[in-house]
Design goal:
By secondary structure, the protein is of the alpha+beta class. It is 37% helix and 12% strand. Strands 1-2 form a two-stranded antiparallel ribbon.
Amino acid sequence: GPLRALKGRISMRADDTLAPDQARATLRLADGTVHVEEIEHAVGSQLNPMTDAQLEEKFTSLCNRILSPSGTTQLWQHCWHIAELADAAMLSAAASLRET
């Protein structure tokens, strides 16, 4: 299908001139037009850390794959307030609440 055809036109290569947190994408159209997008510091890198909201969104999207929504919320709250937990075993217990 169209996605497979597009996938066949994409190539990636390492560029030793870029820093570990840099990226560059080049799009060449059939009419010869070239578009370049460069990222100096990827989100999540030391110089461009995730915001609290971005971190929570990523955590939620990953945990919702294996935990119930309430389990994900509970685990997030435990992680976010870890210094206030009476017992670190609460993290393990929250992480084991599988969706039913």
